Amino acid sequence: MEKKPNLKLSAESLPMLEKNESDESQTKLKRELGLMDGASIIIGIIVGSGIFVSPKGVLQYSGSIGLSLIIWIVSGLLSLVGALCYAELGTMIPKSGGDYAYILDAFGPLPSFLYLWSALLVIMPTGNAITALTFANYVLEPFYPECEPPTDAVRIIAAMLICLLTAVNCQNVKMAAKVQGVFSITKVLALVLIIIAGLIHMIGGNAQNLSLENMMQDTTTSPGRIALSFYSGLFSYAGWNSLNFVTEELKEPNKNLPRAIYISLPMITVIYVLANIAYFAVLSPTELLSSSAVAVTFGNKLFGVMRWIMPFFVACSTFGAVNGGIFASSRLFFVGARNGHMPKSMALINIKHLTPIPCLILLCLITLGLLTTSDVYILINFTSFVESLFLTMSVGGLLYLRWKKPELPRPIKVNIVFPILFFIICGFLVIMPVFEEPHVVGIGLAIILSGVPVYAVFIGWRSKPTWLRQGILTMDNGIQKLFYAVPDDGHQD
pTM for the full model? Predict the structure, then answer.
């Protein structure tokens, strides 16, 4: 009979659990994700609710159709450059956790903890909550054609979606990847439908909005407003670095990481630009700016009795985005726990399913908490600022390590021009909004800096009272037994 592992989490049991004689018997995250799994994860996370609502924000701040299209193209190219820089980081520092792991290696524990803290409170759960709410709105939209769906119904459906996809991710890595693959195909088909419908509309001689004299009308020259328009554009590309969060579960990451990037990002950029051309061919700038859901307005004007098809496809798109967001973000907190920046119980893997169930449950609870407040939409305004700040720091870490540790193995090494260019552009995106929306910057910095006292008390303070240490250990033991989980054997510092 197979001997059951000791489930007591203590100073004595941890070393034993971390050292198994056979690699095959180790309890660890397995490399089960192939090239197409990786590409579908990137596509699934990027193509969420953004492309169906962000065109309004890009046009609002850029002022003209022409500059909007330029910003969509440049946002895609910037995401590709950033992803290639992250491919170097991901193979040089082959750890799950993405930005957290890179900032930790380059700048130490406090900056990396502040990223983890910001991601825990704002970046990850807010993105998942907003996308889930978007899913719920579009599921209910056909049933409430003349009015807004009831707020409670929207929140309940969003909560059900988050719980369902958390359960899928708890069950099996391959199951989560299959869900991602199916809905990645569906959402790309939705955008292809928009592109084809727009092309047919243009062939019929209805492309007045795309004439040269109209395209550049009312173009802004304000650097601050251009930066804010990039916020909306880049929001639709958010997730281009998502595969770096699951590097330890990717087969042959040195080959498949850059290949997945080369497959997914150019395809997404082309589809996004063509989709925006289709939007502008059908909708005037005034119609687009007055719409809160561009794809639905597009469908209502063009598809007639088949207008229900756009809410359906947007719902499919956001379903896949929530699944991908849960999958990637749970790995971030898992890696943070392994490094002592979260409770040890968050670094546990379920013995049966080999998934970080405690992390998935924690993320689910935080996301559900965000569904209870209407202020969650306000968080979107400064999430882009917070993300841009840490992206700048991560690529700054790449440049720092090029100078400080040139001997580190770099299976993928990009031209130095790319990280320098990315660093400068991200710096522009961080600084310029100070002059247009200083409150966004202020709130973002306040959330980041609120992590400093938390770090000082719970991580920096080594001589904690015995009662506090014992309480933390008791909590860890209880969680380990509840989820039938053990520490990750395959990890080595």
Answer: 0.75
